[in-house]
Amino acid sequence: MAENPRRQPQQERSRQTVERIITAAARVLEREGDRAATTNRIAAEAGVSPGSLYQYFADRDDLLLAVTERVVTEFEARVVPALRAAAREDVVTGIVTVVGATLDAMEERAPLLRALTARVPGDRQEELLRALRARVTDFVYASTARNRPELSPVELERVTWMLVELAQTLPLRYVLDRPPIPRDEFVRDAVRLLATHAIEAGPRADDGAQA
Amino acid sequence: MAENPRRQPQQERSRQTVERIITAAARVLEREGDRAATTNRIAAEAGVSPGSLYQYFADRDDLLLAVTERVVTEFEARVVPALRAAAREDVVTGIVTVVGATLDAMEERAPLLRALTARVPGDRQEELLRALRARVTDFVYASTARNRPELSPVELERVTWMLVELAQTLPLRYVLDRPPIPRDEFVRDAVRLLATHAIEAGPRADDGAQA
Amino acid sequence: MAENPRRQPQQERSRQTVERIITAAARVLEREGDRAATTNRIAAEAGVSPGSLYQYFADRDDLLLAVTERVVTEFEARVVPALRAAAREDVVTGIVTVVGATLDAMEERAPLLRALTARVPGDRQEELLRALRARVTDFVYASTARNRPELSPVELERVTWMLVELAQTLPLRYVLDRPPIPRDEFVRDAVRLLATHAIEAGPRADDGAQA
Amino acid sequence: MAENPRRQPQQERSRQTVERIITAAARVLEREGDRAATTNRIAAEAGVSPGSLYQYFADRDDLLLAVTERVVTEFEARVVPALRAAAREDVVTGIVTVVGATLDAMEERAPLLRALTARVPGDRQEELLRALRARVTDFVYASTARNRPELSPVELERVTWMLVELAQTLPLRYVLDRPPIPRDEFVRDAVRLLATHAIEAGPRADDGAQA
DNA sequence: TATGAATGAGGATTCATTCAT
DNA sequence: CATGAATGAATCCTCATTCAT
C-alpha cells in the first residue's frame, strides 16, 4: 500500500519544496502545538497542496520526525563544536563554552522545542534525541575521565549523567520558563553548579556533604 | 458548545463514578499516551457509557484537567508536608527531606507524568502546574531568605528559581530516564548540588567561581 | 487503532440500522457498481451518518463482505432445500428442481451478483462463495455417487465439477445476459445438458463421443 | 475534461512506448488487481513518467480499454481461425477445434481475465467483449443453421446462445478455477456437452428428454 | 441519571491528472 | 516528446459530542 518512504528529491525545485514543508511544519508546531499541526494546515502554511507533502514524507509522523531531525542537526552543529573546544580548555572555561552554546542553540528554537518535547515516547523521535544525548554524553565522559582519574567507571557514569542532565535541562528550562533572570547571571549559576559537580562529586565529596 | 461546567457530584455513587473515570483516564494515559486516550476508550476502561462521562466533565480537556488536578493534589499531599518539615530543619537535612519526598511522589506517577508533560502552554493544565510550582517556590523563597539574609530580593529570586528548578527537574528526569544509578546515590548528588547552591550562590560566590 | 471488529448490535434500533446499511450498500452496488459505492454514498443511501457505518463494520471491505454474506445466505436458503428435495427425486426431476431454484434465487439478485462477481480474488468474499460452492458440490457428489456406482472417485469428482459448474454458471449467465429466450426453454435446455452429463458422462460415454 | 482521444503514435519509438505501457498495465492488473493498478504504478512498471502515459491515453479507463482490446485481439487471433477451420470439419471435430483453441487462448491470460472480468456493464469494455461474443456467435449460428436445417430462426437463436455460452464459459471457469481435472478430460466432457447440444437440442429432442 | 446509538465535522491519505521545464 | 513535481478533489475513517430512550 504505502510505497513512498520519503522520496529523494532529484530536482532543485523539489528540494525547495521539502525545505518549505519542514519549515512550515516547524512554524505551525511552535505556534499552535501538536494538535493543531494537521497535514492540511501544514501544507497550506507551506503553500503547497496536501498531496505534495506525501511526495516526500510517508505520513504525518514521518514529517514530524524530519522536523526533529532538523532541530537535532542544528543543535549538534552548535554544541558539538563547543564540546570540542571545551576539551582543550580548563574545566570551568569549558563548561562556560558548552553552557553558552547550548543556551544559544535552544534560544533560537524555544517554542519548537516545547512542541517537540511534548511527543509520546517510544517512537523514532525519542531515538533521535537519545542519539544526540549519547553523543554529548561521550564527550562529557571523556573530559570527566581525564579530570577525575580517581573515579571508578561506575562513578564516572554517575557524575557524567548528572553533568549532561544539568547542561541540557537547565538551559532548556531557562528558555521555556523565561524567568526574570538575566542571561549572564543564569549562565554563571549554571556554570558554578556544573563546575562544582565536575570537580567535587564522587566518593569523598559525598562524605563531605554528609558531614 | 461546552456548557455544563463540571457538575458537582452530590451522591455517593456519583462520586465513585467520577473517581472511576479519572482513574481510568490516568491508566489509559500512562499506558497508551495522549493520542490513544479517546473519550470512548476511557469510558470503556471506566466501565461507563460515553454519555456518562459528559455528566461529570464538560469535555475531554476538562477530564484531562481533572487528571492533572489529581496528580497535582497527590503531589502536594506529599511535598508540602516535606517543605513544612524542612522549614524546621537545617538546610542540608531540609533538602534531603524535600528531594526524597519529591522523588517518592514522582516515582509512583512516572508514566503518567510523561503523558501530562506533553501539554501546550497556556492551557489550564499549565496553570495548575504553574500554581503548584508557585507554591513550592514560596516555601523555598522563605527558607532561602532566612538562611541568606545578605541577599537582595532580586538575588533571592534568582537563587530560588534555580533551587526549585533543580528540586523538581532532577527527580523528574531521574524517574523518566531511569539511569542505572542507585536511588540513594542520585539523591546524594542532587542534595549536594542544591545545598551548594543554597548556601553559596550569590554575588560573592560568583566571583569565586570566576577566579 | 481499529478496535471495532463489527460490534454486536444490542438494541432493536441498531439491528435496524445494520439492516438499512447492508441493504443500502447492496442497492448502491447493484445500481452503480463497486467504484461508486463509497462509504459516504452508502451511508447517505441508508440515511445514516458515515460514523454509524463504522459502528458495525470494521471498514469498507467488511461491509461489502456482509453484503456477500447476505446474498450467500439468501441463496442457500433457496438452493439447499431444493438440493434436499432433489435427493428424493429421480435424476431429471431433481435437476429441474435445482436449476429452477437456482434461477429463482439469482433472478432476484441479478445486478447485485454482477457487482459482487466483480471483486478481486483472495479476499474473504471468495472464501464465502467457495464455501457455498463446496456445500452444493457435496450434495451433487452424493447424488451422483448413488446414481453412477460404476464411477471411480476421480471420475465422480470430475463429473461433479462439471455438473456444479453448469448448474451455477448457466443460470448466472442467463440472468446477467438476459438473452431473448423464454425462461422455460432455457430451463429445458439446461436440464437436458445436466441430465445427459449426469447419466452418461464417464469412461464409456467418452468412447462413444470419440467414435 | 478528457480531451486528447488517444493520439496515434506515428514514430517507431512511440509505438514501442505504447506497447510498454499496455504490457505493464496488463502485468500489474494480473499480478495485483484492479485496485492496485494505479496510473503511477503502471507508469513506473513501464519505466515511463506518469505524464507520458497521458500522451497516449486519454485517461485511466482509456488505458484499461486498450488492455482489453489487446486481450480481445489476441483472443480473436486464436479463436477466429479455429472457427473458420471448424466450419470445414464435421460437428464434433469442429467443436474439439474450437474448445481447444479457446482454452489455449484463455490459459495464457487467466489472471488478467479475472481482473478484466470485473467490469461494470455499460462501459466500453463491455462493448468490446460483447462485440467479440457477437462475432463468435455469428460463426456458431451459421454452422448450426447448416447442420440443423429443420430449426426455426428462433430455435437457432436459442441453441446458438447455449453453445456459445458453453464454449466460452466452461473454458473460462476451468482456467480460473483450476479444478484437479486433466485438461484433456475436461476438453472431452466439454466437447461432449457441446456436441450433444449441437446435434440434439430442439423441439423434438426436448420431448425425448421429458419422456 | 445511565445508556449506547447516532452524529458529522474534520483529519490523514490517495491518485488521476496537469503543467512547467 | 519526456519528465516528474505539483495538484486537489475525493476517499476512508475517527472521535468528541449529543440525544432519544
CATH architecture of the largest domain in chain A, by name, is: Orthogonal Bundle
Quote the average pLDDT of chain A. 87
Order of helices and strands of chain A: HHHHHHHHH
Q: Specify the oligomeric state.
A: homotetramer
Question: Number of helical segments of chain A?
Answer: 9
What are the key terms here?
homotetramer, Arc Repressor Mutant, subunit A, 2 domains
Q: Can you put this structure into words, describing what you see?
A:
Four copies of one chain form a homotetramer. The first copy, chain A, is 81% helix and 0% strand. Chain A is built from nine helices and no strands. Chain A has helices at residues 12-36, 39-46, 50-56, 60-87, 91-117, 124-147, 153-177, 183-200, 203-210. In chain A, α1 packs across α2 (39-46) and α4 (60-87) packs parallel to α6 (124-147). The longest helix of chain A is centred in the middle third of the chain and has 28 residues, at 60-87. The first copy, chain A, is elongated, with a radius of gyration of 20 Å. Chains in contact: A-B, C-D. Chain A binds chain B through residues 33-35, 92, 114-115, 117-121, 157-159, 161-162, 165-166, 169-170, 173, 177, 179-181, 185-186, 188-193, 195-197, 200-201, 205-206, 209-210, and chain B through 33-35, 92, 114-115, 117-121, 157-159, 161-162, 165-166, 169-170, 173, 177, 179-181, 185-186, 188-193, 195-197, 200-201, 205-206, 209-210. Chain A binds a DNA duplex (21 and 21 nucleotides) through α1 and α3.
